[in-house]
Amino acid sequence: MPEDNVDLFVIGAGSGGVRAARIAAGHGARVMVAEEYRVGGTCVIRGCVPKKLLVYASRFADEFEDAAGYGWTVPKPSFDWATLIANKDREIDRLELAYVGALERAGVRIVRSRAVLEDPHTVFLEATGERIRARHILVATGAAPHLGPPIMGIEHVISSNQAFHLEALPNRVLVQGGGYIAVEFAAIFNGLGAEVTLVYRGENILRGFDEDLRAHLRTEMEKRGIRIITGQTVTGVDEARGSFRARLSDGGEVEVDKVMFATGRHPNVDGFGLKAAGVRLSHNGGIEVDAYSKTSVPHIYAVGDVTNRINLTPVAIREGHAFADTVFGNKPTRVDHADVPTAVFSEPEVGTIGLTQTQACASLAKVDIYKTTFRPLKATLAGRDTRVLMKLVVDGTTSRVVGCHIVGADAGEMVQLVGIAMKMKATKADFDAVMAVHPTASEELVTLREKAASYQRQAAE
Ligand SMILES: Cc1cc2nc3c(=O)[nH]c(=O)nc-3n(C[C@H](O)[C@H](O)[C@H](O)COP(=O)(O)OP(=O)(O)OC[C@H]3O[C@@H](n4cnc5c(N)ncnc54)[C@H](O)[C@@H]3O)c2cc1C
Fold first, then answer.
1. Best probe residue, ligand 1, of 48, 111, 340 (max atoms within 8 Å of C-beta)
2. What is the 3-state secondary structure of the chain?
3. Which residue of 36, 38, 42, 147 sits with most ligand 1 atoms within 8 Å of its CB, as the best mutation to test the pocket?
4. Who has the most CB within 10 Å: 129, 217, 232, 431?
5. Active site residue 299
6. What is the pLDDT of residues 323-382, one digit of tens each?
7. What would the pLDDT profile of 258-286 be if each residue is shown by its tens digit?
């Protein structure tokens, strides 16, 4: 029996893999991590971080416009895409180095290579030709954009990966998709001055989110000039004199300078020997794991997007940390996947946590809804036509707040804190007991007096 070279081999240096490697090394394990692209993974290199930087850039347009109502005279602002992308790239390079430094300081060996499992304990590194025997293996390979069924002209279509590196800001963009990445990029391009068409096959954007939130955000996005076409798909893309003509399923056409698909992401499970190692996949296309992120092979674990549980960076990080504590820290730890707060960095922003009204009505005997929409104070002098939505979903039997849905400036920041209250099982009365901070938007969350609706489940016949 050959000796193990490492206690832990991590495949993929993204959010989950980096955290797991560092914590395991801190517990005394000999750790090696392979990364085929860039250390930091999707979130740092081509996800959350660069996206939020583009979101910040896109929001200045409103600030310049709104300043006039507050007495400022602002010369016509101009925007330079190349400067934004170069500055963003510099920051991403800095962050990648910081991740490399943190891993190296923890004693983790990083190999810049694609890793392939040859058998349940052997990892082959394509770039160096090395074979590594590992006592434990963590698969943290993330997910990749999935452009959907092949259509004519798919080669002209970009995904979010390429959107971060466009040479110029397109004047007219079509974004296909209705999830948070589609909605965010539609808002980014719109804020930067492009004409944006969003095409989605479902009946409304942000499937799975609260219905009021979906309707409110759609209205707000349309007010900002984003054209939203639902119930349709792009069936083909033709190139025509430097621009593109996207054909829609109803026979219509949209002429644009760029076509981006944000039609979903698929877990990275192919082509690196999972089958050879005996790792089972689940019905949702991700790696099947138990509550401790253990796969069907007892010494192989998987965390993050490759497991297709909740595909968010903080979740991948928690799963990676819990894995390292469980296997190397002698502290079995499960991740609590309930009530995960999350944001959509659209314009206006979305913050959401817990049950939607529909989910609450399907699972609880009694549900009370509290909600309000209002014009934010800042919009008054600015003369901006926008409204905030705030909604609490309350369990009518226990009075616990089981859902909170916000559309408006800083919604992501607000819902992070609402998350603490909800994790502590706060009731509506607890919310009401808190003194308002005035004048803020979030004060509405503690001053919602009137029930907007109340639902009671009929007893089964
Ligand atoms: C555009 C966009 C915006 C997003 N915005 C947010 C947000 O605002 N908030 C949020 O919480 N989440 C956001 N996400 C999701 C977030 O990025 C992911 O949930 C998170 O990165 C998952 O971490 P992970 O460790 O599972 O995988 P990843 O971070 O994807 O890391 C996996 C790594 O494995 C590497 N790899 C794959 N196969 C191999 C192999 N065989 N050998 C070696 N290396 C391999 C990949 O190159 C990659 O670096 C966003 C995602 C995208 C695409």
1. 48
2. CCCCCEEEEEECCCHHHHHHHHHHHHCCCCEEEECCCCCCHHHHHHCHHHHHHHHHHHHHHHHHHHHHHHCCCCCCCCCCHHHHHHHHHHHHHHHHHHHHHHHHHCCCEEECCCEEEEECCEEEECCCCCEEEEEEEEECCCEEECCCCCCECHHHEECHHHHCCCCCCCCEEEEECCCHHHHHHHHHHHHCCCEEEEEECCCCCCCCCCHHHHHHHHHHHHHCCCEEEECCCEEEEEEECCEEEEEECCCCEEEECEEEECCCEEECCCCCCHHHHCCCECCCCCECCCCCCECCCCCEEECHHHHCCCCCHHHHHHHHHHHHHHHHCCCCCCCCCCCCCEEECCCCCEEEEECCHHHHHHHCCEEEEEEEEECCHHHHHHCCCCCEEEEEEEECCCCEEEEEEEECCCHHHHHHHHHHHHHCCCEHHHHHHCCCCCCCCHHHHHCCCCCCEEEECCCCC
3. 42
4. 217
5. no
6. 999 999 999 999 999 999 999 999 999 999 999 999 999 999 999 999 999 999 999 999
7. 999 999 999 999 999 999 899 999 999 99
